[in-house]
Design a protein that fits this description.
328 residues, alpha/beta, Quinone Oxidoreductase, Chain A, domain 1, Rossmann fold, 7-stranded mixed β-sheet, 15 strands, NADPH:quinone reductase, quinone reductase (NADPH) activity, ADH-like_C, GroES-like_sf, oxidoreductase
Length: 328
Amino acid sequence: MAHAILVHTHGGPDVLQWQPVPTPTPGPGQVRLRTTLTGVNYADVLARRGGYDAGATPPFTPGLDAVGVIDAVGEGVQDLHPGQRVAAFPLGGAYGTHVLAPAVLTYPLPNDLPDEAASALTPLVTAYNALTRAAHLHAGETVLVHAAAGAVGSLAVQFARALGAARVIGVVSHDARAAFIRALGADPIVHTREDFAERTLHLTGGVGADVILDTVSGDTLERGLTCLAPLGRLVTFGQAGGRPATLRTDLLHRTNRAVIGYSSGHLRKAHPESLRASVHAAFELLRSGRVHVPIDARYPLHDAARAHERVEARQGNGRVLLDAPHPV
């Protein structure tokens, strides 16, 4: 018998219930993973609350990505086999001991890539694609990253450096996080005591940032346009602040600037095959040692409520992991 976390009603962390579930059977084009690790994405918190537009209707299992070992394959699956260690974007949620995943969204892991690194599949793909696919980052540019100490932000800081950014500026909420991202190679701005747009203009000699990565939206995006350089690109891929932004188009066309939307979730659904190249590139940067996945905390999968509490408090740095128990 498999076990999983289920959400029967939207609410606080206490609605995350650990319970037995039938072991799923892979259908055509699917594989089944015996999960070893998954991670908590902020989207999981929003889905649990009921405020995320990609969230499922209860009852559902949260989770966007998992690492594990394939223990069964469905009809028509090629190049994947039982016993293979993989990372995947599962169907129907990742917080379980056994999960199903489409073969097209399942990625074999190199022997020298640990589970802990691969378990950040969603943050890795999101950070890498936001910089490359959406922003088309060029070497020598300045990048501004909001929520820079989080799982996505901390990777975006490192990817920007590895991809040739001349300067990376990271917006954080307090001094401990400022020290954390400074060690990753970013110039920190603590937004609780200084205006990030004014400080960015000061740091760039009045020019502004060439690329801004924004997961907050609302006032943050609107303020970000005041420190976006001519020909700059602002990538919006979330609204953790609670509301979308409104835009004045004259602020864009007069200076050849762009606001670009990005969603890993949409690409998974509409163009799943397009993610493979990004996953491979991100894994190669991890293997090279130029990028690492900061781990903030680990919890047993059955204790997902405590993991959600930590992510929701936004006090940690990097990725929060959930260890799945091995079946007896």
